Fold these 2 entries.
Entry 1:
Amino acid sequence: MDLSKEKVDALLSFLRQTKDREATCEDCLSAMAEFAETHLEGKSIPESLKAIEDHLEICGECKEEFEALLKTLREL
Amino acid sequence: MAVESDWIERLSGELSTRGAALADLRELLLAKLRHAFASSGDDFIEDVTQEALLKIHGSIDAFEGRSQFTTWALTIAVRVGYTELRRLRWKDVSLEQVTGNTDAIDAGRVDSQNEPAASAIRRQLVEDIHAIIEEKLTEKQRDVLQAELAGMPQEEIGRRLGTNRNAIYKLTYDARKKLKNELERRGYSKEDLSPA
């Protein structure tokens, strides 16, 4: 396996964000509604949701869904 | 339209009550998904709404009340929508196409070799990353990592490997952990891992 410079940079970015323990996409889905409401209320993120915040930094798919959710909630 | 506290009761109620609740929820989802997937057609929105309704109704027991019911329901609907959108976008791309795409590789290596002496650490880092990937990761981890770095969604990687997004996330997480631990063992600091 060989990687271009861009892919090495992307991988390094992933590695810098890699934690000893991480929430999975399923964990993220089950807590995303609570996380989104906390975010929209402008409250600080509680410790119980920190892993979700970290997951959204590293998982592009969950982040895309989270941003779409925020967009719809702002319209409610 | 139901107030938030009514949803569970209505969706779990008698047939007529449940039918009315599902109709209300359908209207709500349709309106919100049209906004979230504004560039997709009506058929797409209708299909996603229908599938989301089934998923929401089938997993009501998983709703723990940590948010508004409608927020929870929308979270599921948005995931259903993006899952379908990604499936459509990637339907003609095989895993082999993204894992076998090595066009940019030599250029990447040449770039790093042509950098001035000051970037010797970076050159060594790139070499070590390649070596660790070859020596420490499994073939499956290498394929999945390469597909992810090529931009293929985890959901789509999973579909091609007969597994799901969560399993792919765990697989790449294990690969990242192995890589990071081995780089640290070789003396690299977090600062060394900054993109060039």
Entry 2:
Amino acid sequence: MKKAGIIITAILFLLAIAGSIRTPYSHTAVSYDRLQGPSGSHLLGTDNFGRDILSRIMKGLGTTMTVALLTVATGALLGTLIGAVTGYYGGWVDRVLMRFNDAVTAFPTFLLALLIVSLVGPGSKYSVVIALSLVFIPGFARVMRTEYASLACRNFVISARLMGAGHLRIMFCYLLPNTMRVLLPALTIGFNNAVLAEAGLSFLGIGVSPPEASLGYMLSESQSLIVSAPWYVLSVGLTIILLVFGVGLIGEGSRADA
Amino acid sequence: MKKKVFSILIIALLLLVSCAKKDASQPSDEVRIGVAQDFDSLDPHHMTAAGTKEILFNVFEGLVKPTPEGEIVPAVASSVEKSEDGLTYTFTLRDGVRFHDGMDVSVNDVLYSFRRRMDGKDSAAKLASLSVIESIEANGNRIVIRLSRPSNEFLAAVMNVYIIPQNCTDIESYPVGTGPYMFKSRTFQHSLELVRFDEYWGKPGKTEKFVFRILESPDALVLALQSGAVDIVAHLSSDQTKQLDSDQFNILTGSMNLVQALYINNAEKPFDNVLVRKAMCHAVDRKAVIDLAFDGYGIILGTSMFPSFAKYYVDELTDYYEYNPQKAKDLLAQAGYPNGFSMTITVPSNYTPHVNAATVIAEMLREVGINASIQLVDWGTWLDQVYTKRNYQTTVTGVSSDNMTARKLLERFGTTTGNNFTNYSNKDYDRILAQALAEPDDAVQTQLYKALERNLTENAANVYIQDMADLVAVRKNVSGIVFYPLYVLDISTICREK
């Protein structure tokens, strides 16, 4: 299962990397060959501006993956820090930070992301990254806190402390490797959520700016063409599904392994 | 056993629903129209949304009203006389004009309506364009209005003074006017019903009853057409019309009466150089913009005026800048940008037509070496940063004229005009504009307006693109839609064939 996941993800990853080097056509070039079905010259057809859909998917995949990876990396890093501190120390630090965390969690995620994007200034993939990572922090923090709290009183921690290891050393050299059991699946689930959230934000028109491509933005463009160009919405939708599915399989597999 | 009963129940329910649907099939004397937004106010002096004015045009009338040909003709007044010096207008009240509540229209109602829009007691009703009025008084069945200076836009302003009864207390809930249709009922966020007013002074409406269904999502509008819930929807995109069955619907093409252009901040470098602006005009293939982003629907424009204002439109300006990328490159080199430059097109994200146009324009500019990127902003940011603070390089938007004069389309490019968001500044333009605004003679003024249009084109103030098409889907058995050079939907001529 994990193998299948790795293969699917790797193919998409290669496609995105290939897209960043070269695409069959320019992903922004418009032409009079509008709304053409899949053919030899355009493998996935063309969109309403006559742009090659395959080229746009390759570029869009890159944008979406970059956004998702950066989002998860930032979210996980800050979330783990907060989770580690609150879980390890407990006490008032825990209470203050986690209540704050609860407040953020209680706010509808998507609305919060919308709010942050409009504050940072829409239209760039980095504003989407900032918005989504902030939204993703509480989830990681909560998962990691639980893990840290349950590990903090184990014997190996006590013996490490007796040997004179500092708090930071214990937190990140002794405890962190032991949290992989939950962190890895959380990362893959987070990645998938980020892909879908990017799609959602771009769908609402506040993600990347045209003529740049992202899977979400393409999905929103294809929405009004469902009848006249079904291959457009299908190819974009399937790409998103494959990406989420592939990464999801890896996550499932690594949880079974750990 | 239980399962059987359940399934029988379901079948019965389905049958009932299908019968109900048949029963609800429309009586022949009713037409349903889908609209995309709720009505902001039913008080004709308070309404501001274009979509509300569009419909309530059928309920209220002024002393004068517009025709599809773009003329202003007497309505509640039977005649209009203008004095030699252009300072006095005398309106004679038409005999036998009645309000929807059955009362005759008197001069006092007219005076009340004018005062409500003038005196500022009700600030929302105040109409700035009436500020030229010096005095207004009644003389028998005549209303005499004196102006402080001659104004050719005055009648267009009078058009917006909808006559309402002086004793009305709650016009918002019980709108009473003199138009061919009268208010019957309204359900917030859902629908509005209008019925024919049988004592109308003019040509009576052809259909007994109209229902306006409010369907805020674009998909819901298309679905409502397909399911038969509505018969007419205006302002559709070409993508939406493609989803409709051509056996069932006619697609009519009107025009939006707005000037869509790549508006340029003329004060910003490098756009302060006229050669750069001319290069941009040569670089954009307007026909391709319309073909690629609008399915070929749209009328190419070359200046800040559209053909439905036939009186003011200067046809030869349309092709002043032919599509010629090489010439564009030469002009750029001449201007000192042989390798082009980078620029940003700021577009409001909620206006898909403008975003689509910008997408194609950016590609064309790239062909000649201008690296154009698109920045999407929300409508509020656009209004604040682009329209008000003029803090932008270029933008794609549409400029319209909501009364039937050329003034609104041209005055905004005067150096000192408040809404000159393009920062266009040209001495000749300012001089001719001042002349035109002060000119009492209509024919001379028209010539001056034409000179202004020529000035805008020759100096490449903006890259004018098109007057966007207004696509209207109409069920095959419904006919009689007439387009106006204004944003109105005249329902009095619409009928269902029997």
